[in-house]
Amino acid sequence: MNWPEFYFARHGETDWNRERRYQGSKDIPLNALGRQQADANGPLLRELLARDKIDPATIGWYASPLSRASETMDRMRAAFDVTLPPVIFDDRLKEISFGTLEGFLHDELPPELAQAPGRRNAEYWYHRPPEGENYEDVADRLKSFAADLPALSVIVAHGGIQRVLRHIVEGAPHGEVVNWPPPQGVIAHFRMGQMTMHESEMSSVQQA
């Protein structure tokens, strides 16, 4: 697919991120660090758009409806002193669902049910937990979402979403993206099939 240019931010940290707990579709709020990361992402995004000579009032703004993403978006937009278009909350940007595994710590589940990032092989892309999704399912909904994207957008969503975007936009291999820890407090710029990362002063590498 020929994806349009967009800027992507993963939501700030939650307590479940810090505890290394499977979060998925559960609506877990930002913690204090997560709010600081979201606040720091706002000036960073403003600087990137100014650098690229992009008027923030003329682009699309999209977010997952889960509160950790929507609050991150709100805090980022607070850095702008112009009237911005309304945020479009899209269910297709929700985090990958871990089904019945949500709420469990990474280390308390047997490997046949789940494996934490860093321990997965390429086939884990197709692993679907009970009543949950696999990464291919997420790729299908993101390809549908892409058809509705304008020429330039800002997106705030989740670590699993960013993993899948690296594969379907950049072409990164399954084995790499399922083990990659998407950072928080960072803006990723996707342009012409490449991702460039820009860190704020509050960047971290906590896992989804």
Task: Please supply descriptive tags for the structure shown above.
Rossmann fold, 18% strand, 208 residues, 6 helices, single chain, alpha/beta, six-stranded mixed β-sheet
CATH topology: Rossmann fold
Shape descriptor reads globular
Averaging pLDDT over every residue, what do you get? Answer: 95
Largest sheet: 6 strands, mixed
CATH structural architecture: 3-Layer(aba) Sandwich
Low-confidence stretches: none
Percent helix among the residues?
A: 25-40%
Order of helices and strands: EHHEHEHEHHEE
Task: State the end-to-end CA separation.
Answer: 26 Å
CATH top-level class:
Alpha Beta
What fraction of residues sit in β-strands? Answer: 15-25%
Radius of gyration: 16 Å
Overall domain count: 1
Structural class: alpha/beta
Notes on the structure:
- The structure is a single chain.
- This protein is α/β, with parallel strands linked by helices and 208 residues long.
- 31% of the residues lie in helices and 18% in strands.
- It has one domain: Phosphoglycerate mutase-like (Rossmann fold).
- The protein has helices at residues 15-19, 32-51, 67-77, 135-146, 159-170, 174-177, and strands at residues 5-10, 60-63, 88-89, 152-157, 184-191, 194-204.
- The chain is built from 6 helices and 6 strands.
- The two termini are 26 Å apart.
- The model has no long low-confidence stretch (mean pLDDT 95).
- Strands 3-2-4-1-5-6 form a 6-stranded mixed sheet.
